[in-house]
From TrEMBL:
GO molecular function: D-malate dehydrogenase (decarboxylating) (NAD+) activity; magnesium ion binding; NAD binding; tartrate decarboxylase activity; tartrate dehydrogenase activity
Gene3D superfamilies: Isopropylmalate Dehydrogenase
UniProtKB keywords: Manganese, Metal-binding, NAD, Oxidoreductase
Similarity comment: Belongs to the isocitrate and isopropylmalate dehydrogenases family.
Keyword Protein biosynthesis annotated: no
Pfam families, sorted: Iso_dh
Species annotation: Gluconobacter wancherniae NBRC 103581
Catalytic activity: (R)-malate + NAD(+) = pyruvate + CO2 + NADH; tartrate + NAD(+) = 2-hydroxy-3-oxosuccinate + NADH + H(+); (2R,3R)-tartrate + H(+) = (R)-glycerate + CO2; (2R,3R)-tartrate + NAD(+) = 2-hydroxy-3-oxosuccinate + NADH + H(+)
SUPFAM superfamilies: Isocitrate/Isopropylmalate dehydrogenase-like (SSF53659)
Protein name: D-malate dehydrogenase [decarboxylating]
UniProt pathway annotation: Carbohydrate acid metabolism; tartrate degradation; 2-hydroxy-3-oxosuccinate from meso-tartrate: step 1/1; Carbohydrate acid metabolism; tartrate degradation; 2-hydroxy-3-oxosuccinate from L-tartrate: step 1/1; Carbohydrate acid metabolism; tartrate degradation; D-glycerate from L-tartrate: step 1/1
Length: 357
């Protein structure tokens, strides 16, 4: 029986409320598919930071490396500067474990009203592949001539050949794997003088290895408009760290609620554990009311199973989610227009998994 060691980091706020629902669903699917999980719980969070000045202990990365995958809730707390909690945990893990792919499905689910007029499930259904460790998010640069008339700041972006080629290749491979051989690249080579022409050049070069995959590229500004006007035309969209970041919030926004969207931080070579999380944050405004929607966290758990090679179990979770949401009387949290509580949604999906076979 396959057994997986999972590092469980609920983090802050509603991360603590949605995580138990994902574990509930994992246990149900594990029971059916003959998979078992050893959960290693870590309570690292902004509360840890407030007590110790660190988001994780000194040997934190060593502890995480003992696991097959990491399931993360959300990190962030009023009073703790975002950049400290991000660089101290999330970005640290992404970079040190070389999780250079950020993968997000953009899919309109049944029973969730789409903010775009006349769109139904099926019209909005594509993948965003974001470069996750280099590009515009660098610590290179700094202030100059401080305190003088000439004061300013430089922020550098770094695109290596290795880093650019491997994310583009991942996008092409994904397009083949899902049987939708079409990749759209986000660029801005008319404005960014050095980085984006290089990105375009590598897109063209890597693309020659995939003659069966259709290639498109759009400047980021018009691409954002096309997301909203004609989402049907996308299959796999690949972007740099900054462009991918923006598009991968726009995408879930187009599907009605960010609360259902998952995000996978992947090291495809499996040299290090990959990390799976919902797109949403710790939502301090609703924390404690037990009304947080757990679907983003549950979908993240499904992506984790897929990465671990348990495609069938992963698909069962997705199917159960779809089945539950398709029912008119489904348990829905307030963000989905209902009155259900977090645990009601988790229980419904967990039961649908068990009944599915
Ligand atoms: P962070 O800095 O942690 O990302 P944030 O305030 O920027 O926090 P979110 O925490 O994602 O972003 O919250 C944005 C809005 O979406 C809030 O109004 C929050 O209540 C709502 N929200 C986020 N996640 C959920 C969820 N799972 N269920 C219901 N509402 C949610
Ligand atoms: Mg936020």
């Amino acid at each position: 029986m396959p057994n997986y060691r999972i590092a469980v980091l609920p983090g802050d706020g509603i991360g603590k409320e949605v995580m138990p629902e994902a574990l509930k669903v994992l246990d149900s699917v594990g029971k059916l598919c003959g998979i078992s999980f050893d959960y290693n719980h870590f309570d690292w969070s902004c509360e840890t930071w407030l007590k110790t000045g660190q988001m994780m202990p000194e040997d934190g990365m060593g502890q995480l490396s003992q696991n097959d995958a990491i399931l993360l809730g959300a990190v962030g707390y009023p009073g703790v500067p975002d950049h400290l909690s991000l660089w101290g945990l999330l970005l640290k893990i992404r970079r040190e474990f070389d999780q250079y792919v950020n993968l997000r499905p953009v899919r309109l689910l049944p029973g969730i009203p789409c903010p775009l007029a006349n769109k139904k499930p099926g019209d909005v259904d594509f993948w965003i592949v974001r470069e996750n460790v280099e590009g515009e998010y660098s610590q290179i640069g700094g202030r100059f001539a401080e305190g003088t008339e000439a004061e300013g700041v430089v922020q550098s972006a770094v695109f290596t050949k290795l880093g650019t080629d491997r994310i583009l290749r991942y996008a092409f491979e994904l397009a083949r794997k899902i049987g939708r051989p079409h990749v759209t690249s986000a660029t801005k080579s008319n404005g960014l003088f050095h980085s984006m022409p290089y990105w375009d050049e590598r897109f063209a070069a890597v693309g020659t290895e995939y003659p069966d995959v259709r290639m498109d590229q759009y400047h980021i500004d018009i691409l954002a408009a096309r997301f909203v006007m004609s989402p049907e035309r996308f299959d796999v969209v690949v972007g740099s760290n900054l462009f991918g970041d923006i598009l991968s919030d726009l995408g879930p926004g187009m599907t009605g609620t960010i609360a259902v969207a998952p995000s996978a931080n992947i090291n495809p070579e499996k040299k290090y554990p990959s990390m799976f999380e919902p797109v949403h944050g710790s939502a301090p405004d609703i924390f404690g009311r037990k009304i947080a929607n757990p679907i983003g966290q549950i979908w993240a758990a499904s992506m984790m199973l897929d990465h671990l090679g348990e495609a069938e179990a992963a698909a069962m979770i997705l199917q159960a989610m779809m089945d539950v949401l398709s029912r008119p009387d489904a348990a829905r949290t307030p963000d989905m227009g209902g009155e259900a509580r977090t645990a009601d949604v988790g229980n419904a999906i967990s039961q649908a998994v068990l009944k599915g076979l």
